[in-house]
User: Fold this.
Amino acid sequence: MSDTILPTAQKPINDRRDSQVMLSRVANSLYWMSRYIERAENVARLLDVNLQLMLDFADLNDEQLKEHWLPILRSAGDEETFFKSHKKADSASVTEFLTFSPENPNSILSCLFTARENARQVRDQISLEMFEAINEAYLFLKSKNAREVWQSGAHEFYGQIKNYSHLFQGLTASTFIRNEGYEFINIGKLLERADKTTRILDLKYHILLPRVSDVGGAVDAAQWQAILRSASALEAYRKFHVEDILPKKVAEFLIFSTTFPRSIRSCMQHLDTDLHRLSGKERREYKSAEERAFGKLLSDLNFLTIEDIQAEGLHEFLQKVQETLDRLDDHIYREYMYHPPVDIQAEILLHQQQMQQQQ
Amino acid sequence: MLTDSYDRGDFFDEMFDDAGPVRPHYQNVAEHLRSLDEAEYKRKQTAVDLSFMRGGVTFTVYNDDQGTERIFPFDLVPRVIPDTEWKRIEAGLAQRITALNLFLHDIYHEQKILKDRVIPPHYILGAKHFRREFMGFNVPKDIYVHICGTDLIRDRDGNYLVLEDNLRCPSGASYMLENRAALKRAFPELYRNARVHTVDEYAADLRRVLQYVSPPSLTTSQPNVVLMTPGVFNSAYFEHAFLARQMGIPIVEGRDLVVRDARVYMRTTSGLVPVDVIYRRIDDDFLDPTIFRPDSLLGVPGLVNAYRSGNVSLANSIGTGVADDKVVYYFVPKIIKYYLDQEPILPNVGTFLASEAEDRVFIMENLEKLVVKSANEAGGYGMLMGPWATREEIEAFREQIRANPRNFIAQHPISLSRHPTWCENGFEGRHIDLRPYILYGEKITITPGGLTRVALRKGSLVVNSSQGGGSKDTWVLQGDS
Assistant:
């Protein structure tokens, strides 16, 4: 067994006994805890913005409603699961499904429950403050009060969910030790954030009245504005572009900005740093095919223009980003978290034989 | 708040003496409680409950598929022990753990105590937790029980008696520490004025014990110590995570460990890292499916062999359960006499063995007056409280005793001392016990205080968390008042 073939996590026998070693299971839990919190925040923002957007379009028929909500369902949740239990995709059914449904593993409720379960798994690793923040979110969602808050004002409800996430991320920054675990937390958050930004931007591809007459009209502008707000990017965008909200500029901003922390490029730059801290490789060296594909994409972002992407097709480009991130997620799992499952029966046999030899 | 209408009843009351006045060591507490109004007291109680819930200071309720988590109810009125009284308890506990360690060594080596007929051999050799496989095995530093929780109660006259020893995986130390932290937040001034011994050293002491018993073959001075838990669904998971955090050691599950060439490794992001000492919060039976229960998914195949090879230490050692068998409990005073030639400082509760013909006759004739316990159960399970039981329950136990007398002991019910405790309509007396924690490493360390458990249901004598029990902070004063 040579080092080059075996992923790090499976390399035998290392004599490090310092406090910096981290169980693979712990790395896995930290990563998912962080990813699910970021996911819950993004779903909350997406629903909040779109519910508000719908206020301006009061007289849509069923078909139009479906056209609006279906892409959101696709981007945030799971279309198939949804239609198993729902006939109609409208504001009420989709928001309910994406907020409270325990059947939907990506509903806000499921995300925060899973995040909290992972936090419990690593209760000894994270700070008390971090656990309390996540536990409070859990207790809130578990209480009857949660639904009451939601019914009396969805905006307040989603605001609270976003606050839990911000509180947690702030506490992570201010109370968590800068060890390997911090990289896993960051990578989980950044991967999720980059992925969600691609999906939010891609909404406009599927969405929403792609009729020629609407393009460039009031509806179109409102929708592009909603896209920006879904990524928390409206105010940031305005700092750079004082003119009207232009589709091309929005896409450019959400893809290329080096200063806005939710742009795809910005997330990937930070991911790049964290990946290197984790692997211990030099800055432009990559550990695997997946990391190299990621590095190549990041490098592309340094040289491409929005026109290049438009020529390639925005949707196709975004899909490529998603695939690259998916493969990176897979690589991280195999490299740092996966150990081949122990075959208990085989182990028992092995140790019984060893004991007999000793006797 | 604490009014003259408080009913002491015919019990030993911790706060008030029989004639009426507040005992000297409770003056501070009583005065403070009198000065509080009810609303303020309730506010403090709510704040503490909320902080426990938020911080996840909870236990998981078994037999509930919702995975319900509850807080262990915490009563704000502290239980106070004067210095002199504590010194005696401390001496008694040290004496007891010393004798029990000598006993365990003897049982797993020469068995002199059996040969001298101090204990009939069949009680030990047939005991459920006796591990024949470990005969002749030498444990590191010759210490078997590193962590011990001994349950003490007080009788009508206030004498401390030992109710049981917990020599396997005693739990509750985290609540001792959390209760203290909560009480300091609720009553900072009262606490400061009372001059109380701190309990904060527990985790550091425990860590020192675990390091001390590392394998003799280990060359590094920094052993890799881990805490092994059955997992997040175990009712005591909070405690496992809490103690690991306090000690700064990793918490591991069976699936995080693997044994190769009689060495234990943990599976980390940077490869397999050797483990030297395991503070295991998992019973013998589940440690290693190769040796014990083959169906156990919690354990690690090969762990016992690594232990036998001297490559990893376990705290507590394997096979200590034989000494907290309730039948062996009966013999502890004799054990103390035999190994130390001393009288026990802390006496036992008077006990009858169902397997002794004479005792059995007495037990069968007096079931409705006695407390009957299974020899190997914990947590208040497998118990008959004769005076409060229905006829059916009594008859069911009679059958069980007849079928398997070795498995039962009986005791006269001890009324347990009572302590003012907040109940819905003010302070009422509730029965309490005390579980101090004893650590045995380079020396014996007993954290001043422990976990006072309180039976919150009116009249109840069962203090277990699984059966309506709560807890209190326990203060050992630096003086006697």
About this structure: Residues 177-339 of chain A form one domain.
